[in-house]
Amino acid sequence: MSDRLGGALARKPLHFIFVLDVSGSMMRGGRIQALNNAITEVLPHLKDEARANPHAEMLIRVLAFANEPRWVIEQPTPVEQIHWERLEAVPRGFTELGSALMTLTDALSHLDDSSSAFPPAIILVSDGRPTQSSGTTFAEGLQALLNNRWGATAVRLALGVGRDADMHSLRRFIGDEDVPLLRADNPEQLVEYIVWASKAASKVASRPVIGGGLNAAPPSAVGGDPIWSTLG
Amino acid sequence: MTPDGGWTTLSGSVIGSVHQRDHLPIQDAVLTWNDGNQAVLAVADGHGHRLHFRSDTGSALAVVSAVEELRRILPALTDPRSARERVSAAAAAIVATWEAKVRHHIEANPYSQAEDDETGASADPLRPYGTTLLAAAVSGDLMVLLQIGDGDSVVVSRAGVASRPLPEDPMLDGTRTSSLCEPDPLSALRVAVVDTRVDDVALAFLCTDGFGTSRVDSDGWWRQTGEQLVEFGRSRGLDWLREQLPGWLEEPAQVGGDDTSMAILVRTDLATRTVPAPPR
């Protein structure tokens, strides 16, 4: 009989999912380039977070959406193994966020149903008002997500891009009024906000305590002109 | 059949690696008492996040309250038929005692304006002290267990067969727990009465969720733990168990990140009694 009481131990997975808008409007003002840059910038920070949380196995997925959702990274992948390939926006592509949330919910429903995982961290980035050309509304997608155990308990953060971002829908996605909702009006802000959101989400989601509570202050006074709001 | 021996207690508590990293105090508490024939033990897991910013105090007050109140009912723990009623009454007394101690602590240490602004503590004054509670008491052959919130309470026979005598709490899903700081914590109370002679009990252990949540065998770790404790206690003695316990708690606290505590109630004659023959 082994001298280790209780058997083997393993780190619990922390699923980290980016849900990224690649609709046609993301082609304006260099938004899609800025989003790619932001993801590239955030990866080293996530690696630092993974090292700072040795009790959690940080696994990344990326879901892009325009006319339809598409997994960019479908298999949960350790952050050290992520090689980011730049996303392209879909010309004249819609903002089918409701369908994306359905796809996200389906993925969450395949997670381990025991308590042996941290609540997932989900970061949504969008620059427009959700459309419903696929027949699935944003409200239906959100409700499906919230009806899922992991979706309901996830640490959900959202970033708006430019003045056309539907901040009301993004606020509904977050749910918790105490969690900041940020809008990036230029590439510098987008990078800064995504880095902040990723670090904040990983800190909250990987705490081995009951309940959430995001208490990291968002970045303030990030420089740059509000080009995405003036360009429209 | 030789008479069963008395009871002794072992316990330990180790801070989680995340609490160490974040420079937070340990939020678990553990307390035991025994006189050789009777024993009481309690463990508590303070919730630890920012809304429960005094949960280290809350868990410490919880185990003190539990040991105080359970010691009071020990003389009356003689009849299995009335024991359930007595332990339920003791649980109500524990909750009342804990709440009184918390309010006393708040009087001596009022919430600051900053704490109020950030968490609304004054509007829900018990919330900052939120904690679970697991407790057990034994008097002669009768053992009682009570629990509010997550964690595990396990009873193990001399044959090494483990069981969880408490009913499930439907509120526990790995992300939420019932708590002493709720408006009606007794609605989440779970109690059990065990006749240790009938069930041939060798030991019982209580542990906070930090011990089990990172186990690869998430369904069976508690059975293995029970079987090992009986085997180790029999083959290597209780002193060896006592020496090993801190190390056994250290590993899950490091890997899982959470505070990890365990209290064990064990027959003093575990190492000297012969092993029962397996059933044919």
Overall CATH class of chain A: Alpha Beta
- Share in helix of chain A: 25-40%
Q: What is the H/E string of chain B? A: EHEEHHHEEEEEEHHE
Detail the poorly predicted runs of chain A. Answer: none
- Span of the ends, CA to CA of chain B: 19 Å
Number of strands of chain B: 10
> Taking strands numbered 1, 2, ... along the chain, how are they ordered across the largest sheet of chain A?
3-2-1-4-5-6
**Which strand-content bin applies to the residues of chain A?**
15-25%
Mean pLDDT figure of chain B: 92
The main β sheet of chain A shows up as: 6 strands, mixed
What would the CATH topology of chain B be? Phosphatase 2c, domain 1
Report strand % of chain B. Answer: 15-25%
Question: Could you give a short description of this structure?
Answer:
The complex is a heterodimer of chains A (232) and B (280). Chain A has 232 residues and is of the alpha/beta class. Chain A has seven helices and six strands.
Explain what this protein looks like in three dimensions.
The complex is a heterodimer of chains A (232) and B (280). By secondary structure, chain A is α/β, with parallel strands linked by helices. Chain A has a single domain (12-203), classed as von Willebrand factor, type A domain (Rossmann fold). Chain A is built from seven helices and six strands. Chain A has helices at residues 31-52, 97-108, 138-147, 149-153, 167-174, 187-205, 227-231; strands at residues 12-21, 56-65, 69-78, 121-126, 155-161, 182-184. The mean pLDDT of chain A is 86. With 280 residues, chain B is of the alpha+beta class. The A-B interface holds A 1-12, 52-56, 114-117, 119, 149, 153, 206-213, 215 and B 16-18, 21, 27, 47-52, 118, 150, 173-177, 210-222, 224-225, 228-229, 231-232, 244, 248, 251-252, 254-258.
Indicate the topology.
The complex is a heterodimer of chains A (232) and B (280).
Chain A: E1 12-21, H1 31-52, E2 56-65, E3 69-78, H2 97-108, E4 121-126, H3 138-147, H4 149-153, E5 155-161, H5 167-174, E6 182-184, H6 187-205, H7 227-231
Parallel strand pairs in A: 1-2, 1-4, 4-5, 5-6
Antiparallel strand pairs in A: 2-3
Helix pairs in contact in A: 1-6, 2-3
Chain B: E1 7-14, H1 17-21, E2 28-34, E3 38-45, H2 55-73, H3 80-108, H4 113-119, E4 133-139, E5 142-148, E6 152-157, E7 162-163, E8 190-195, E9 201-207, H5 221-236, H6 238-256, E10 260-267
Antiparallel strand pairs in B: 1-10, 2-3, 3-4, 4-5, 5-8, 6-7, 6-9, 9-10
Helix pairs in contact in B: 2-3, 5-6
